[in-house]
Structure formats: C-alpha cells, structure tokens
Design brief:
Length: 294
C-alpha cells in the first residue's frame, strides 16, 4: 500500500505540466474535390500525398516559425531539420477514413496554434494542387497555341492562293460561275464572238486550267478552318482552366481550438504506473521472502 501511494504521488508529479507539456488537438475531416487522380490512386490518396509533401511542410515551417515554436536551435543542433521533421511527423497526422475522406489531426501545446496549423494545411494543399494543375494547363495552352498558329499560317497561304486565282484568272466562285459561263460561252460561239484570244475564251481556259486548283484549295481550306476552330475551342478551354480559381477540398469538419488537452491522459498514466510498480514490488517481495526461507 505504501508503494502504491508513493507511485500515485510520483506519477501525478511526473505527469504534471511541469514535466510533460499538455498537447491540444485540432481535427478536420476533408473530402477531395476537382482532383484528377494519377495512375491507380484515387482522389483521396492523391490528397494525402499532397498533404505530406515537402512543399506543404516547408510552408508550415516558414509561416509558423516552427523552429522557434518547437524550441529547436537551428544553429546549435546537429541535425535541426531532421529533428523538426520528426516532431512534425509526431504531431501532425494525416490518415484515410473508411468513408474515403481524409482526417487531418494536429497536436500542439497551444490550442490556437494547433487550429491554425490544421486550417493552413488545407489552404496550402489547395495552393499546391492549383500550382500542379496550372503547370499542366500551361503546357496544353502552349501546344494548342502552336497548333493554332500552324493552321492559321496554312489558312493564310490557301486564302492567298485563292485570292490569286480570283484576281489573275477571274475565278470568283467556280461552282456558281461555271454553269452560267457555259451558257454564255456557247451563245458567244454561235455569234462568232468566242474566238481565240477573246476575253470569254481566255476565261474558259482559266476555268479549265485552274478550276480544279480552286476546288481543291476551297475544300482543303474548309477542312483547315474546321480544325482551326476546334483547336481554338481547346485553346480557350485551356486558358480558362489556367486562370480559374478552384478549391480542391470539401471540409466536412472544420478545425477549431480545443478547450481541453488531449495528451497526456493523466488518469491512464497514474493507473498504469501504479499498477506496474505494485506488480514489480510484489515480485521483489516474493523473491526476498523465498531467499529468507532458503
């Protein structure tokens, strides 16, 4: 009984804030949104990877001055960054729930700091995903713009060739022009006005020699314009995706400062320490009594 009483007193002392700083917990439940998963991972797994990325952790270290907050001497400590990352790993937990959401839990000696870190990680995650997606959309914008420029150059070349046929050879619209021209040409022949070198005869030669080129250019220009318009739509969509501001998380449970500490649980520590000491004392007493009898 004496040992039990002493154990209770010692465990109460050593589990007090003097020896063990209490930690407060802030917690958030998040579902992914607007995420395109890579490879075989789903959106939730991708979100977990981003939460644990070095960029997000570096944001926390810089914005919350965690070296100072965790009392780590960056100049005197041998491996300050490794120690800091270890402490962050112990105090910041990200896990996947059974409902395909992510649970973000932050422990800290300051309840307000725990809440701020938890909330900031969600913001950093959104920024990181936005940065990743904009890098990809920027590549798509460049590719589509290059293809558009090529098609525009091709269109300009064909339009210049058609304009040449119109100005130099008088072919304005072959399909509409050839039928009335045939009637006019045969009538001119009957009247003896379609001789060699005449205006109507020169136009007939132009239609015969360049009509096929005009039709080919016009049909090809129609297809190129269709391709150009499709590329323009893709380009405009990529520009929209590049500049839009999206969020990539749906926060079901928002973080807030805790009212009471989560660690250590003094009752469990006192109970466990007392039980262990009583058990050890019983073993020692049994050994001593056996030695006395022997």
């Amino acid at each position: 009984m004496i040992i039990a009483v002493i154990s209770v007193m010692l465990s109460m002392l050593f589990s007090s804030p003097v020896f063990i700083k209490p930690l407060f917990k802030s917690r958030a439940i998040i579902y992914p949104s607007n995420l395109a998963p890579y490879a075989t991972e789903n959106a939730t797994e991708q979100m977990l990877q981003i939460f644990e990325s070095e960029e997000v952790l570096d944001h926390l270290i810089r914005d919350f001055n965690l070296f100072k907050h965790y009392a780590i001497d960056s100049a005197g400590e041998k491996y300050p960054v490794s120690l800091l990352k270890y402490m962050m790993k112990e105090r910041i937990k990200v896990s996947k729930t059974e409902f395909e959401s992510a649970e973000l839990t932050v422990f800290d000696t300051d309840p307000l700091m725990a809440s701020k870190i938890c909330d900031s990680m969600i913001s950093y995650m959104n920024e990181k995903v936005r940065e990743m997606q904009r890098e990809k959309y920027a590549e798509v914008v460049i590719i589509n713009k290059h293809q558009m420029d090529l098609k525009k150059h091709e269109m300009d070349s064909m339009e210049a060739a058609i304009e040449l046929l119109r100005t130099d050879y008088g072919i304005l619209d072959f399909e509409r022009q050839v039928r009335p021209f045939s009637s006019a040409y045969y009538k001119a022949m009957e009247q003896g006005k379609a001789g060699t070198g005449s205006t109507i005869d020169n136009l007939r030669k132009n239609l015969a020699e360049k009509g096929g080129d005009y039709i080919s250019l016009k049909e090809h220009l129609y297809r190129v314009r269709g391709t150009y318009n499709d590329l323009k739509i893709l380009y405009e969509n990529a520009v929209t995706n590049l500049t839009k501001e999206l969020t990539y998380t749906n926060v079901v449970t928002k973080p807030f400062p805790a009212e009471k500490k989560s660690y250590p649980v003094r009752s469990l520590l006192i109970l466990g320490f007392t039980a262990a000491m009583v058990f050890v004392s019983f073993v020692i007493i049994i050994i001593i009594e056996k030695n006395k009898q022997g």
